[in-house]
Amino acid sequence: MNNPFIYSDDNKRYHTFSYYLKHTYHQKVFKVPLDAGFTCPNRDGHISYGGCTFCSALGSGDCVKRSDDIMMQYEKGLEMMKRKWPSGQGMAYFQAYTNTYGTLEQLKQCFEPFMQRDDVLALCIATRADCLNDENIAYLDSLSKRKDIWVEVGLQSIHDETAKRVNRGHDYACFLEAIQKLAQTNVKICVHIINGLPDETKEMMIETVQKIAHLPIHALKIHMLHLIKNTPMAKEYEQHPFHILTRDEYVEIVCEQLTYLPKEIILERLTGDGIADDLLEPAWTIKKVCVLNEIDKYMAKHNLYQGKNFR
């Protein structure tokens, strides 16, 4: 069966980040993850302590070492990536914790060194909706005149009851306000959601994507819930187990979610990279390539593609 999806050079029936990068920069481009030394208002007591209950002590930056100077982190990450792609170019990915949670001067000290490097094609900045005030949004917009600036906003779910359950610290209305402000700038917007959060049904997960589909965003990351050892959620699960999506359930949900997204939205990821030593559940997420292959097979078998059900 021919692939009906237009933004694809292969068998993928969704708009992959690889496709976008290839057709934008015309070369191999990769992200280099960084820990810039920020924290989170949900950890330091400004809003709460302990962070979101699913988040590890490293603030989702498990693959980088805060002990290294940030430019040293980049150099080490770049060297590792270039072993695989010698001619590739890097994007500085400020991944760990909340990377706009600081003063304007702190943000400038963090981002400007990378803006001055010609070999850094773009900055990708992970943050929260409640840490995007008018001042730092204006600063990020000013940076976008010089390089591509991606702002990755964690949402996880549109459902406020879920946000309270996982100690998110802000509601959906706060997220919407931040997205509307970012949409008035030249920055590119990526939203992050999690499938399989406690007490969420398939219908709730589908609804999250249906709502996001109509927002002025450029990209989406879909992640399966990881129960990381020693997190509050992992401890909760060990005492009172809740349903963890099977691989088949996850694949079916993701494939249906994709059909509700406009074809222009880029899918930066459809599953996460589990670190085996830290992962309590689900073990199947460790085999990332297998999950992606199952998504491809399911979409082909059922003649699904991104945007098929978008209205």
Describe the structure.
It is a single chain. This protein is an alpha/beta fold and 311 residues long. The protein contains ten helices and nine strands. It has helices spanning 17-25, 70-84, 104-115, 134-143, 160-165, 172-182, 202-212, 232-239, 247-259, 288-301; strands at residues 29-34, 89-94, 120-128, 148-156, 188-195, 219-224, 227-228, 266-269, 279-281. The strands form two sheets. A seven-stranded parallel sheet has the order 1-2-3-4-5-6-8, sandwiched between helices. The protein has a two-stranded antiparallel ribbon with strand order 7-9. β3, α4 and β4 (148-156) form a beta-alpha-beta unit. α9 (247-259) packs across α10. The radius of gyration is 19 Å and the shape is globular. 42% of the residues are buried.
Helix percent reads: 25-40%
Mean pLDDT: 94
Radius of gyration using CA atoms only: 19 Å
Helix segment count?
A: 10
**Secondary-structure element series:** HEHEHEHEHHEHEEHHEEH
**Approximate shape:** globular
Give the secondary structure arrangement, pairings included.
Layout: H1 17-25, E1 29-34, H2 70-84, E2 89-94, H3 104-115, E3 120-128, H4 134-143, E4 148-156, H5 160-165, H6 172-182, E5 188-195, H7 202-212, E6 219-224, E7 227-228, H8 232-239, H9 247-259, E8 266-269, E9 279-281, H10 288-301
Parallel strand pairs: 1-2, 2-3, 3-4, 4-5, 5-6, 6-8
Antiparallel strand pairs: 7-9
Helix pairs in contact: 7-9, 9-10
Structure described in brief:
By secondary structure, this protein is of the alpha/beta class. It has helices spanning about 15-25, 70-85, 105-115, 135-145, 160-165, 170-180, 200-210, 230-240, 245-260, 290-300; strands spanning about 30-35, 90-95, 120-130, 150-155, 190-195, 220-225, 225-230, 265-270, 280.
